[in-house]
Every structure is written in C-alpha cells, then in structure tokens.
Amino acid sequence: MGKNILITIEYDGTNFSGWQKQPNVRTVQGEIEYVLRYITGEDVSIHGTSRTDAGVHALGQCASLEWNSSMPIEKLLEVMNRRFGVAGTGRSGAGGDIRIVSVEEKPEGFHARYSCTGKTYRYIIDKTRDIFIRNSVFQYPGADKLDIGRMQKAAKEIIGTHDFKCFETSGGTPRETTVRTIYSLTIEEDDTNIVIEVTGDGFLYNMVRIIVGTLIEVGEGKKSPDEIKQIIESRNRGNAGFTAPPQGLYLKEIFFGEEETCV
Amino acid sequence: MGKNILITIEYDGTNFSGWQKQPNVRTVQGEIEYVLRYITGEDVSIHGTSRTDAGVHALGQCASLEWNSSMPIEKLLEVMNRRFGVAGTGRSGAGGDIRIVSVEEKPEGFHARYSCTGKTYRYIIDKTRDIFIRNSVFQYPGADKLDIGRMQKAAKEIIGTHDFKCFETSGGTPRETTVRTIYSLTIEEDDTNIVIEVTGDGFLYNMVRIIVGTLIEVGEGKKSPDEIKQIIESRNRGNAGFTAPPQGLYLKEIFFGEEETCV
Q: What is the pLDDT of residue A59?
C-alpha cells in the first residue's frame, strides 16, 4: 500500500475539454496522469474533487492518488511543474497551463472527493473589451450598467439550505437530492470587473453559472430580487436566468472537514 | 479608384503564426483579408506597417487598404469586429483575438508602411508565475532581482542615432542600412512587472527583443551599463544579450508624419 497523496492544482481551462479523462481529447486529468506515468513508468490514477467543464478554470482543484514510487513527494511538485512547462522551471514549449500548487501526504482513508465538505467558486464578469483576457473572464456587454445593490439583495435569498433544482442543468451526474447549503454569496465591484464568490457544501451541474446568469438578469432589471424565493420554490430551471459561460468560472478552494482547507 | 483606408488593429498574437500571410497557417493578415473577402465578396489586400512575428502582440498595428465596396466605412469596424467574435458584438465561437480599433479614410498616396515615421514597442517582463497571463508577458525567473537602476543607465546609452547591427538577428528582410534612431527607451517597475517602452524611427529584425535581453543581462550584473557603447560599436550580434521571447512584446503605437498618430 503506497502513500495517500493529495495534490492541489491550478489550471487555465481554455485549452482543455474539462477535467475528466476522455479518449482523444486533452483533459486536465488526462494530462496529469500522463505526466505521472512519464515520471514513474507506471499507471497512476488520480481522483479529482470536481469535474470542471471545458473552459472552466481552477485555482485550487484537488486530487487524491496512491503513490508507490521511490521518489520523495517533496520532489514530485518540482518534477511535475517542469514537465507541465510552468514558467521558471527551465522548460518551455509545453502548454504551461497546469501548475501543481502543493503536494501533501494524507492519512489512510482520506479521499479528495469523498472527504470534501465544501467548495468556493469565483466568477469574474469583466467590463472591458480587453482581448488579452477574453478566455479568463466573462466579457458581458451590459456589465457596467448592472445594479450591484439589486444583485446583492437577490444573493441574500439564495444563501441557506434550499432545494436548488431550479439552478441545475439536466444531464449531469444523477444526484440523490438537489438540496444544498450555500454558506456565502458575495458580489464585489471595481472599475474593471464584478467578482462573485459562492461557498457551499456542494453544487449541482452548472449551478454556479446559472446563479450568475440569474443575478445578472436581476442586475439588469429583468428579474426582481423578490422573485428569487419563488424561483427556488418552483424547482423549475425555466424560471431561473441564463447559464453564464464557462470562461468566467474558477474553482477557487476546496474544504475538507471543519478546519482543513485544500489551498 | 476606391477610398484609401487605414485600419488600426489590436491582436493577441498567441494563436497566430505572425502577421504576414502564408499558406496553411493562421496569420493576422490572412484572417483580416479573409473577413474582408467575406464582407465584400471580393479579394481585398491589406498592407501592414510591421510584420510582427509569431506570438508577438499588437495594441496599434496599422494597415492600408483600397476600399471599393458600397458599405460605408463607418460600418466596417462594427461588421469586422462581429466577424472576429469580439466580446459584446453578439457573436462568439470565433477566436476573439483580433479587434479593429479604428477605421479612417486617408488622402491618396498615404500608405501604412511607407508613410510610417516611427513606432513604439512595449515589452512586459512579469515577476509572477500566474498561469493565466503566461502568453502575454515574459515570466522571467529572476525578474524580481533585476537592478532597474543599472538597466536605466544602460538604456541611456542606446538612445540616439547608432548603427544597431549588434541588435539584429540575421535572416530578416535585407535593409539598406542598420542605422536607426531611438528617441526614447524607458523602464518602469511595479510590484508585478517591469515595463520597457522603446520609440524609434524604425527597428531591425528582433531588435526590441535583443535590446530587452541585453537590458536583462545588465540588470542581472552579467553585463555593465558601460559596456553598451562598445557592444553597439562592435556591430557584433554575439556581444549583445539573448533574444527575449515573443510573448512579452507588443507593437504599441505607430506614428505618421510629425503630428499624426495611428492610435
């Protein structure tokens, strides 16, 4: 039995067909497993906390793996980042779009997915037309006219434990329940962007992107903050707002247990 | 005889094999001519001021073209940007990595290349390892230890009219002379990056990137500011510094005549 390892991963999702390994396409899981096989000469399977979609980014995705190699885990981070072509590691030409943030040993029984007790997502709505950041923000035409006060009022109606079926795209992994708890949902604005951060015990398929689309419609006056309660109670996806696109979304942080944080 | 049009263009060079049209690869000139043919139904040739290399960006590239279409030029900017998939134009899925900044009519005889009297380039050296900006800055490992004062002292030796053969990569377009005038060369630093801006009447092949590489070597103490004069006088590429990579370089602004600026 090898060591139980947790890796924390940052990635730019632009050039990936999402997290989950699939044949014939470039995925984050596929790239990491490829590099681990290159390093160890053996197949190494990793178990990610979240299956992020194509175009979605991560600042703190987590994954568990069993480590049977003689290489000390202290060295693993450095060796992997060089293979990924991270700036400053002396290797270029690779994508440079995955960076291992940390590698740590965990007790037996710990699992990146099953031990997760909560996550924080960040969504960035950009007010500029800066082409150089087009893949890492949502450049929404009316962003500079959104009423942030209205959006914050709507956000308060979302916080708490509710059946969030209205914020779920059908077709995702089947779930036992669509009840989730949102611990916090903040909206902050500066000159160039609007940053929405949401922390919860778990999220349904596309839930953050639909919450963002709904909040935008509230900010535009198309929906009222007072309607949110009814929308949630309706359990009807058709009553919620549009699904905001993937490029504005970041898996920011993953929580394990009460005290322990992945990043 | 159609109208003489000048377009100013911003582009993210990451996914282009440079400016100049070539068969079977994606180039900025090729994309713009493709879109003009789509719009007009006819072949339209454009004449760019600078042939930027693969990976090099532009904030204010310029190009001339003859406009024979009945479409008013006021509409051309909007129609082109929608085709390019610029954010907020209601079209997505295209690259989104070219944006037309302005379209203006010029007198007969004006030409984006031959009427150009000067250019400003910007080069960004980044001190972070932020993977999300890896293609639009040079993430140099020792950037936070560079001695900016030394680099500024060396920059003063470069300003002026000199034979800059030492800062030229061989293999570019043959030139009548390697004498150029550098009007200004500034180096500014903040917490996350170092920005070098250089304005001159013209530049040799890779000249800005070699100047940047040379300044970095001065900033690291490998070269002394006092050596710059000798390096220039030697006319020997081997005495100058390394060629900084393309992703940090931006064609910022193009000047025509004494008063007129492209952007």
A: 98
Count Cβ atoms within 10 A of the Cβ of residue B207 and give its class: 0-12 exposed, 13-18 middle, 19 or more buried.
buried
B141 assigned to some structural domain = yes
For tokens 């940053």, the residue is A195
> pLDDT for B112-152, tens place per residue?
999 999 999 999 999 998 999 999 999 998 999 999 999 99
Taking CB atoms and an 8 Å limit, are A134 and B97 in contact across chains? yes
Neighbouring residues of A94: CB distance < 8 A, sequence distance ≥ 6: A83, A84, A85
B169 shares its domain with B94: no
Query: Residue B200 domain-assigned?
Result: yes
pLDDT at site B91 = 59
Cα–Cα distance, B100 to B120 (Å, whole number): 19
A132–B57: do the CB atoms touch at under 8 Å? yes
State which of B66, B82, B106 marks the end of a domain.
B106
To the nearest whole number, what is the mean pLDDT of chain B? 94
Can you give the pLDDT at residue B257? 82
Across the interface, whether the CB atoms of A97 and B11 are under 8 A apart is answered no
Residue B204 is part of which domain span? 119-255
- Identify all chain B residues contacting A131, using CB atoms and an 8 Å cutoff: 10-12, 86-87, 96-99
Q: Which residues of chain B have a CB within 8 Å of the CB of A87?
A: 129, 131, 134, 139, 141
Chain B contacts to A (CB-CB under 8 A): 10-12, 57, 86-88, 92, 96-99, 129, 131-134, 136, 139-141, 245
Residues of A acting as catalytic residues: 53
CATH of the domain at B66: 3.30.70.580
| Same domain flag for A93 and A126 | no
